[in-house]
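Before a computer can learn anything about folding, someone has to put a protein's shape into writing. The three-dimensional part falls to structure tokens, numbers that each stand for a local backbone shape. The protein below has been through that process, and both of its lines are reproduced in full.
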Amino acid sequence: MNYFAAMKSLNVELPDKVADDIALLVRDGWFHSESELVRAALVEFLRTRQAELQERFQREDIAWAVGETKPNVK
């Protein structure tokens, strides 16, 4: 999946420690910018967790559907 076909800007708030760690990694040359690091981290998160997230959402949808379709027996 090409995550970089189009870009959208997001503004996020991070704990100071996380922001400091990001700045350190950029300063030490691991990434060209803070934006590059955040993009890489999010893409990796989505790549590794996508199947798990899809399964969780499907299970939630099924649970909702089963709950909605139960007959109202008294």
Notes: The chain has a mean pLDDT of 87.
